[in-house]
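The methods section describes the discrete structure representation at length, but only in general terms. Since the whole study asks how a given chain folds, the encoding of that fold should be made plain. An entry of this sort, consisting of the sequence and the corresponding backbone structure tokens, reads as follows:

. . .
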Amino acid sequence: MPTPSARITLATALLAAGTAWNAGNIGPVTATLAADFSASLTAVGLLSGTVFFVGVLATTVVAPAVAGRIGVGTAARLACVLCGAGNVLFAISPWFGGLLAARVVIGAGLGLALVLGPVFARAYGGVRLLGVFGAGVTIGMAAAIGIGSLLEDAGVDWRVAFGISAVAGVVALPLLPAQMEAGAPPDRHATGMLRAMARSLPLWRVAFVYVGSFGIQLVIGAWLIHYLTVEGDISISLAGLLAFVMFGFSAASREAGGALSARGVSPVILVGVAPLLAAVGLVAIALEPTFGVALGAVILMGIGFSTPYAVMMDEAQRLFPERPVAPITVLQIGTNVFPMIVIPVVGAALAAGNGDAALVALAVVSCGAGIANFKPAVPTR
């Protein structure tokens, strides 16, 4: 695989971080949005998850066709513009309906980035740059949660945080190369792959662990601060710090997972065992949401959720090397549908006082995903 330049590496990281920022910027202000717009936690969950992932899912499905028509480079720029414009709309809207529309636009930008970014990264720098892209995704979510929590605790108007989100969305634009094909042409006929992919048990197993890692992490990112402040009596700043720690370890683990895979570490460890650590963290925080336990739990979750990322992205594309966009699209569809459904369900569970049971249920999913991948999806290189 080629060695990427410093500019390509930075562009990859900023594209990932700036667009994924939007998966973490609602969490710190859930209570404030509910109060300002007289909305229930379930409604805020719809805002944070369901309508957001409607936008993500819509562009995930059409990403191959979009890239085929306008090129990967232009599609990546469009992702940045959508994220920036959507956050501006969110910040200035006086109506809850405007927030809903804005989240669909923002989700559309993230959907494009999450499909095309891994294809671009693998083509330019192999599994190592895949790790960088994955790390950028979690750094963006971590920064959004951390900065948003500090601003919220300081009493700063929540609209300021979404102004910052708009800037983050477009920060990669000056660094993106004019051409981003890098030997990985966009897939113009992804629909023709559906039958082969539906029959591929290895792809189903990779999709399971992807949903059981990134999908659950998106759910946790939406509700962790609320859960810790209500069930654990932890301040918003400390809860935001714990969320930041989780995503910080997640970012480091995504990059480390790519590096370890490149050095020949078994995918059984990176993809099979790692999700079990996340399951332990989820159960621990469900049983004892105190600061000390939560600190250990978020570290385990950060490592467990994210170590598999680079290996999963590489395995999916190696299963269908002639059309690399198609399997990434399938993975993203699964991981978008999951939080779209589960985030408001967890919100309802929290409102009913059953947050601990919801976390244990998520732990069961994470554990099952790891066990399903004790056998590698594709032969080790």
